[in-house]
Amino acid sequence: MxxxxxxxxxxxxxxxxxxxxxxxxxxxxxxxxxxxxGICKLTLALLCSLVFVLSTIxxxxxxxxxxxxxxxxxxxxxxxxxxxxxxxxxQSNPLHTASRTExxxxxxxxxxxxxxxxxxxxxxxxxxxxxxxxxxxxxxxxKGFQNILEDYEHNYTTRSSMGTLTFxxxxxxxxxxxAAICTGKYHLDRTKKEGGPADGLFSLVLQKTPDGWKIxxxxxx
Length: 221
Prior knowledge:
Elements: H1 3-20, H2 36-56, H3 88-91, H4 100-117, H5 121-125, E1 135-137, E2 141-143, H6 145-155, H7 159-162, E3 164-174, E4 179-189, E5 198-209, E6 212-220
Parallel strand pairs: 1-6
Antiparallel strand pairs: 1-2, 3-4, 4-5, 5-6
Helix pairs in contact: 1-2
């Protein structure tokens, strides 16, 4: 309770006592003099004036020693999140980090491209699994590693007929630890005399073997 409230309460109790003293026998301590009514009225008027004056006095201001309540700053940083956050550079980076399987499969295609452009058909066909179950599909289906090799040697008898081979837009999808699919485009650049340029799509199924990844099914369009 504040000082003003305490003083007001005490004065109210004093006034109440002064007004009811004549009617309450318990409050009489000695006979009141004959001039008491006038004195009581004057005392009552002074007390009422004092109560009014005290009620109009403003409450004391808050002490400077007490720290003011701090409002949260609008620019305060947000608490760190427990969830990890993605770096902005990674979000805008279109490059893809290739897995080991993807790299190994692409190496098979690059080795074929290099062998073909060197005129080495046998080296190119080494990318296929040496198995009678290996399949090559073009305008017709050829089954067996040896038959695929012979078809290539029959269709490309000279170095100029082989032209220059380029693979592009390679995409590798691992099916499991020992199987993968590769799709892409090929472009064969050669003179009109040798048949002209050729373009197409291809899809490959590869199997991981002790000798590395090998093509077990190839389909060209």
